[in-house]
Specification:
The structure holds three protein chains of three kinds. Chain A is of the alpha/beta class. Chain A has eight helices and nine strands. Chain A has a five-stranded parallel β-sheet with strand order 6-7-8-3-9, sandwiched between helices. In chain A, strands 2-1-4-5 form a four-stranded antiparallel β-sheet. In chain A, a hairpin with a 5-residue loop joins strand 1 and strand 2. In chain B, 53% of the residues are buried. Classes of the chains: A alpha/beta, B alpha/beta, C alpha/beta. At the A-B interface, strand 1 and helix 2 of A face helix 1, helix 8, helix 10 and helix 11 of B.
């Protein structure tokens, strides 16, 4: 489902003497449907960068980034937009939303984007928010006013509202209490069971071991090692 | 919406080819080409004088460009170069399938005509001759842009800036256009009013399956509204791509400068 | 007579105006620009109508001039005298005897015939002016037949007054093409715009001439659910008893007594001569 072949990434800082900073080289990995791969490696090794490359948020310098049959490294913006709408979900560490939109609608949005009727989308959003212990009185408020932990759970609910065939999870269990952590792990296992290919970053080792089928050490892709 | 978009995916709604507009020896915009597909929202950013407004006005038929094509996928005849259309055809397009939202609501509204009359004008322009139906639609659209229908007979001069801008949007969208040009739609509005307008635009775009081209200098606006981004400098497109990719991983020196110049809140 | 050229204007000017008139007749409802001359009367007193009349009159014509239907008001009297002096043409107050009738704000009640010409004085010829101040834009709207804006005006009327409150200068569409301002005639007169006589419109200040040839279709704009109605005061004439003529309201005293009389003085006089009598007619008749 997700397959990277010989991908490299560098940043060119035009405004700082055109310095070229290579950050990753020779990245290859493969995640099949129903499989969860954990990215490991020291902080700064490029775990989040790799996720952004797969999501199309960063532009790969070379190589192929296949999600389904789309090569994200080469695709037109509209292909990536369609991919993100229908195939590839991403739970980042930060929630970015339009101010003033109620939490319920933030969570329902991915469903509405694929044409789910509004009431159905809202029902699903409501059940996810309830499952993640967001008090019902907050549902009609914008998450921009929520605490960090609440925002993160809204973000997770949004990521799991629609059944993406492929999912990227960046620290989904960080700073959650035991109960919510268990819920998130249950959601991840549910996604795997229905055949989603998942790439995750987990600092929480117990969680990592519970849901991941294999691990990729990102440090291996750093240019220093390659040189 | 997803399903609809897929079916039409193959034909771009708008194809801009080599569009060039000169002001004497000075470049307005040069060799701009892109395709816009149904349901896509594209942002055009750049500083004042970068040519983004010139480009928008040339595409919308407000100024005649010197070279290039603006091919629109018309309902009746499929893709047609709008620059080669007769003026009546182009103006008809401007009242039906196209809409233009001006930065200053005053430029896009009739200030001496009531809110209802402003919204109803496009309906009457395409042959609406039933007062009751026109008024009903006007009231419905006031509701959709979050203006109380008790204000239907008030003139826009009695409205706040944010309300005027929402009224302008209602006036433009009432005939169900497929392509909306927007020139700094949130410029000059308070931040809280901007947020409300952005939310409104986003939901209208999704509900109506609109395609839109939004010119702005506000990167936060395009991040929230636009799927794709074009960065302009000195009349040229220096970079284009997926909005978040261009903003988070800018490739061109100018884009890097632009992105790094934004104050972080 | 005098040292004036016939009908005051020089022959070249009349020729220029006649060309504008012919073009106007060829394109019914279209506003033809013309080089309006300074006339020896102020703008607003009918300088456009006077120039059209001057270009239309021949020495054999009989001229009638009315202002709001009346032959005896200042404006009508002074224009009639102007042409008596400068053209030496015969004048009349009888509608049926006139070959050229210059009018301000009315169409005579008596049905006009094919050998008559009705000349209107027009203050503002552009019906779209109220909503679109740019001349360049209104011209484009006419040429492209973009008339949605005209209905916006009617919409505004209904939304503000409950019905179409425009009671004069009510916009019409001529021969399915041009939207035209019929000059400030009451909308009661609008149905009469489809007539046997030639109708010429002259706007002196705005330098426009337009025309409606005989038997041309002239439709008053309206909405399906608010159809056009040619309204008048719901009264018979207090002098001649006519139920079908346009009426002026006249306040008689401080106690609120009032009367309604035909605005067309010739029509009223003719009816009374035929023996028709209204509510207050008899005493008037005796006094006269």
């Amino acid at each position: 489902m997700i397959e990277l072949e010989n991908v490299s990434k560098s940043f060119t800082l035009h405004n700082q003497g055109s310095a070229v900073i290579p950050v990753m080289e020779r990245v290859s990995l493969k995640v099949s449907a129903g499989e969860c791969v954990g990215l490991v490696g020291a902080s700064g090794a490029g775990k989040s960068t790799l996720m952004r490359l797969i999501y199309g948020n960063y532009l790969a310098a070379s190589g192929r980034v296949l999600v389904g049959d789309v090569d994200v490294a080469q695709a037109e913006p509209r292909q990536i937009i369609a991919l993100r709408r229908e195939t590839l979900g991403y739970v980042s560490q930060f929630l970015r939303v339009v101010p003033r939109v109620p939490a319920l609608d933030v969570v329902a949005e991915p469903l509405l984007a694929v044409g789910t009727p509004q009431d159905q989308a809202r029902d699903k959003a409501a059940s996810l928010l309830a499952e993640l212990n967001i008090p019902e009185r907050l549902w009609s408020l914008s998450p921009t006013t929520f605490s960090g932990g609440e925002q993160q759970r809204v973000n997770i609910a949004r990521g799991f509202a629609y059944d993406y065939p492929a999912l990227l999870l960046d620290e989904p269990t960080a700073s959650l209490d035991a109960q919510n952590r268990a819920t998130v792990l249950r959601l991840i296992e549910g996604a795997k069971a229905r055949g989603a290919a998942i790439i995750g970053i987990f600092h929480d080792e117990a969680a990592r071991d519970q849901v991941c089928d294999s691990f990729v050490d990102v440090s291996a892709f750093s240019p220093e090692v390659a040189a | 919406m997803g399903a609809q978009v897929k079916e039409q995916d193959m034909t771009p709604l708008l194809q801009v080819n080599g569009l060039t507009k000169m002001y004497g020896p000075r470049i307005g915009c040069k060799d701009v080409s892109f395709d816009l597909y149904p349901g896509e929202v594209m942002g055009i950013v750049g500083e004042s004088g970068s040519g983004k407004s010139t480009l928008l006005n040339a595409m919308a038929g407000h100024h005649a460009p010197d070279r290039g094509e603006v091919v629109f996928d018309t309902r009746a005849d499929g893709p047609v170069d709008t620059l080669k259309m007769s003026e009546p055809e182009r103006r008809m397009l401007g009242r039906t399938d196209w809409a233009f939202v001006h930065q200053h609501a005053r430029d896009g509204l009739r200030m001496s005509v009531s809110a209802g009359g402003n919204i109803g004008e496009r309906l009457m322009a395409v042959g609406g001759r039933h007062y009751g139906e026109i008024r009903e639609q006007a009231a419905d659209w006031l509701g959709r842009v979050e203006i109380s229908d008790t204000r239907i007979d008030d003139r826009p001069s009695a409205f706040s800036g944010g309300m005027q801008q929402r009224l302008q949007i209602a006036r433009n969208l009432v005939t169900g256009p497929r392509l909306v040009f927007m020139d700094e739609p949130t410029g000059g509005l308070d931040v809280s009013v901007q947020a409300r307008l952005l939310d409104l635009l986003r939901s209208l775009v999704r509900e109506m399956g609109l395609s839109a081209i939004i010119v702005t200098h506000d990167l936060a606006v395009v991040r929230l509204l636009a799927d794709r981004l074009m960065v302009m400098k000195d009349g040229h497109v220096v970079e284009s791509g997926l909005t978040d990719q261009v903003l988070d991983d800018p490739q061109h020196a100018y884009t890097q400068l632009l992105v790094s110049s934004v104050l972080q809140v | 007579m005098s040292d004036y050229n016939f009908a005051y204007l020089d022959e070249q000017t009349k020729r220029m105006i006649r060309r504008a008139i012919l073009k106007g007749l060829a394109v019914p409802g279209y506003q033809v620009p013309f080089a309006s001359r300074e006339m020896p009367m102020p703008y607003g007193w009918g300088t456009g109508g006077v120039q059209v009349s001057a270009a239309t009159l021949t020495p054999e014509d009989t001229l009638k001039v009315i202002d709001q239907g009346a032959d005896d008001t200042t404006n009508a009297v002074s224009i009639r005298k102007f042409f008596e002096r400068t053209a030496g043409v015969a004048t009349t107050e009888e509608t049926t005897k006139a070959s050229v009738i210059q009018t301000r704000h009315r169409i005579p009640e008596a049905e006009l015939t094919e050998d008559q010409i009705l000349v209107y004085q027009v203050p503002i010829p552009e019906p779209l002016r109220f909503l679109e101040p740019r001349e360049t834009e209104t011209r484009k709207m006419h040429s492209l037949e973009e008339y949605g804006l005209m209905h916006v005006k009617l919409y505004e009327d209904i939304s503000q007054h409950g019905d179409i409150a425009t009671s004069y200068a009510y916009p019409v569409k001529v021969e399915d093409r041009y939207v035209m301002d019929p000059s400030p005639i009451p909308k009661f007169d609008n149905p009469k715009l489809e007539m046997a006589a030639i109708q010429l419109f002259g706007a002196g200040r705005e330098q426009r001439i337009y025309a409606v040839p005989p038997y041309t279709r002239v439709v008053s704009l309206d909405f399906e659910d608010y159809p056009f109605e040619a309204t008048k005061a719901d009264h018979p004439c207090d002098l001649c008893g006519s139920e079908h003529s346009y009426l002026d309201e006249v306040i008689l005293d401080d106690a609120g007594n009032r009367m309604f009389v035909c605005s067309d003085t010739d029509y009223c006089r003719t009816r009374r001569a035929e023996g028709h009598v209204g509510r207050l007619g008899e005493s008037e008749g005796e006094a006269a």
